[in-house]
Amino acid sequence: MPELNAVRLIRRKAMLLAVLGILVSGILVALVTAVPIYQSSREGLERSTLMGIQAQGAALDNLVQRYEGIARQVTSRTEIRRRLEAYVDGQMSIESLTEYTAPRLADALGTSAALVGIKRLGPFGEEIVDEGVTAEVPEHTVLDELGDVQSRLVRFENRIVWRTVAPIWAEDGQRLGTDVLFFEVDSLVSLLERARTLEPSARGFLLDYRGERLVGVNADGTGLEMEKARETIAGELSRIDPTGPGVVWPELDGEARVLFHTPVGGGRCLLLIESDFWSFYQPVVARLLWPLGVVLLLLPLVAWLAARALRPVLQRLSEQAEELERSAGELRLAGSVFEGTGEAIMITSPNHRILRVNPAFTRITGFSADEVMGRPMSDLFQLDDEESEQLERICQRLNREHSWQGELDYRNRRGERLTALQTISKVTDEQDRVSHFIHIFNDITETKVAEQQIRHQAHHDSLTDLPNRASLKYRIGEAVARARQDNTRLAVLFLDLDYFKEVNDRLGHAMGDRLLREVAGRLQRLLRHEDIVGRLGGDEFLILLEGLPAPRFAGQVAAKVIEVLTQPFDLDGESVSIGVSIGIAVFPEQGYDADALVNHADAAMYEAKAAGRDRYRYFDGQSGQVGRGDSIGEAGRADEGGDHGR
């Protein structure tokens, strides 16, 4: 009897140990399976979010460069600067200077819809002109230390405006004064509002990191509001690295908010996106719920089945039965994860033939399991030579390393190209030989397309789709480098439309925008495929000509441009005629870098405009003046002034 009780006790203990072993094994397998999926999903979500925020930061940098470009254009007006030099030298009174400068700066307000106010200050901070909506300007001591154009957001009455401060220099390097320009911030509001695409409670901010001032969209989404940074993000501010993009998780004792950041404006500011932690990572948690839920449901059933199976044969086969039940539970768990995950999973042989795929693979690619079983990847996805070489390099790397992660381009069942964020891991047997490859990937095609669209918008003019100022400067710099290496010439043509302001005032801004698009179309049809035409802003365009045999060929192109643009434009039945003044700077004779070529072409354009318009002029690098060029359409233009209509 005691032996029987002992046997029964042993059986109960063995049964309990078997059940507990199954439960513990299932939990461990669930954790081992869930942790990599969670890590991959979280890192992918954060990576794609940072890519989007960096693209927004690039768009914001482009906006700042456009505003600062307008400021440099205003300060570089030659005749106005000469009058300021005369005032500094005591040859002109401040009243005369104000009388001459005010109407021209007022005219400059029309060059950009975002420009709402201009202040021109003298060398000692004295106010010369105050046009439009203006706010407070920096102290005189701050202006004296200003070496280049600077921009920042400032508070004006009940709203926020963008203030750009640009020093005015004489040709000998003397400080003549300062221009302070004020811009509307509607574009910044729309950029910050994009944060709500992450989740409804997300907010975007622009942080002046040194001044610790935070600018964000107000509650009704119509404007900006400024507040102290430490009153809003006090816990996270000290943990932000301003030198690069990143993500800051909330502290355990703080509010559950996750913070993404990327530097903008040359490192002077940070673009911040603040989101509710649980709302942002909800997709990652949701992806784990299905496999974990299946595990939790299966564990009690597996434990009960194990107990029933072990009772008849516990004395003889307890160890074998326990091992079999544990293995069965692990297989069920692995199968549930394989079938239920939202990421595509593909298992291939060592020679890359497909052995098995999950339902997510069919949903993403369109191929059913029967269509792909046993087929090689290269045959299935119709990889071209370059992609096949990439796959071969990946295979060579997997021979040395355990896994590979990156982007691969496939074609789905409809023949459409898709970009996958993929992880490839190899499985080895007991002899360390490769038995299988496991491929896990997500379709990120839409994310890549959105990224390309944002990058295109950051480098092209929104009205004409021509390269913008930043893109033109980069392309001219590359062209100059090629010309230096090949010992060839290139030319920069600076175009300013004449009488455009009259058309804009008479027919309205909508017709003016349409006229600018028509001008861009004529220029693109006139020029060669290798020539570059872009829009600097307002009614100013720039043409880059490479591979010129001689400088005179630039003049021939300028003459054709004048001939084409002086032909009447048909705008909804309204015949509109304009003119164009062109300045030419040739590399290397008239400028040795991108900035010099653009500035010299701009100066030559002013001389062409002053000479009667509808003509072109070369910049003369010897005398600092411009050389004469041929003119077209001179009749009826001789009475026009040099600065009118710019």
Automatic annotation (TrEMBL):
Signal peptide positions on this chain: none
Every GGDEF domain range: 488-621
Phylogenetic placement of the source organism: Bacteria, Pseudomonadati, Pseudomonadota, Gammaproteobacteria, Chromatiales
Basic and acidic residues composition-biased segments: 636-646
MF annotations from Gene Ontology: catalytic activity
UniProt keyword list: Membrane, Transmembrane, Transmembrane helix
Transmembrane intervals: 288-307
Protein name: Diguanylate cyclase
Domain (PAC) ranges: 404-456
CDD domains, per database record: GGDEF, PAS
Cofactor dependency: Mg(2+)
Region (Disordered): 627-646
